[in-house]
Amino acid sequence: MDPSAVWRDKQHRWRIEAYRAPDLRFAIFATNGTTESAPLWLFGMAALARWLMTHAISLDDLEND
User: What is the model's pTM?
Assistant: First the structure.
């Protein structure tokens, strides 16, 4: 399953992938140079909005990857 969209924050600490399965899902990866964490799966826009707020990331801080 390929992501519909991919974003990174400006500091390149996080990578966010959006998937259109039967519902909307987001995979969040912590990135550190050439390594990445296992994905944290979020289901729906409300979950992504909460995650962005808790990490103090605004939509302006995201750029297409």
Answer: 0.87
